[in-house]
């Protein structure tokens, strides 16, 4: 069985910060890359940040310099530190967990991030 549990979302004012966490567990495969994706109303789900088991990272251009992805391999947990939040960062943020070889993946249920004055 695979479980992906996100936490840390909430309401924050522009310029504020939040840290998202995603804890993964799997009894059917070894966990490899993990990533954060988001979907705002009326938009398609898009990549925010991704990190593989070796620590290599990818970021969307819109968040580069503001967000930082990291992971704790011993806990199979990935984090997203979000700073200098903007109104356009408002979305449901989803955690994606891939197996070690990238041949299968699972999504979390999502956590709402709302940036508003």
What would the keywords be for this entry?
11 strands; 4-stranded antiparallel sheet; 0% helix; 7-stranded mixed sheet; 56% strand; 117 residues; globular
Describe the structure concisely.
The protein is an all-beta fold and 117 residues long. The protein is built from no helices and 11 strands.
What does this structure look like?
With 117 residues, the chain is an all-beta fold. The protein has strands at 2-7, 10-12, 18-26, 31-39, 46-51, 57-59, 67-72, 77-82, 91-99, 105-107, 111-115. The strands form two sheets. Strands 2, 4, 5, 6, 9, 10 and 11 form a seven-stranded mixed sheet that branches. The chain has a four-stranded antiparallel sheet with strand order 1-3-8-7, with no helix packed on it. A hairpin with a 5-residue loop joins β9 (91-99) and β10 (105-107). The radius of gyration is 14 Å and the shape is globular. The mean pLDDT is 96.
Rg of Cα set:
14 Å
For the record, give the distance between the C-alpha atoms at the N and C termini, rounded to a whole number: 41 Å
How many distinct helices? Answer: 0
Overall number of strands: 11
Q: How would you describe the shape?
A: globular
Helical coverage, percent range: under 10%
Main sheet record: 7 strands, mixed
**Average pLDDT across residues?**
96
Share of β-strand residues: over 45%
Class from secondary-structure proportions: mainly beta
The low-pLDDT segments are none
The SSE string, one letter per element, is EEEEEEEEEEE
């Amino acid at each position: 069985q695979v479980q992906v549990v996100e936490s840390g979302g909430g309401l924050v004012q522009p310029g504020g910060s939040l840290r998202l966490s995603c804890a993964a567990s799997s009894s059917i495969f070894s966990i490899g890359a993990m990533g954060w994706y988001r979907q705002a109303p009326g938009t398609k789900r898009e990549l925010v940040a991704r990190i593989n088991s070796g620590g290599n990272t990818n970021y969307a251009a819109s968040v580069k310099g503001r967000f930082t992805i990291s992971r704790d391999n011993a806990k199979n947990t990935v984090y997203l530190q979000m700073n200098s939040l903007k109104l356009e960062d408002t979305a449901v943020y989803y955690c994606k967990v891939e197996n070690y070889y990238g041949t299968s993946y699972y999504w979390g249920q999502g956590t709402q991030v709302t940036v508003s004055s």
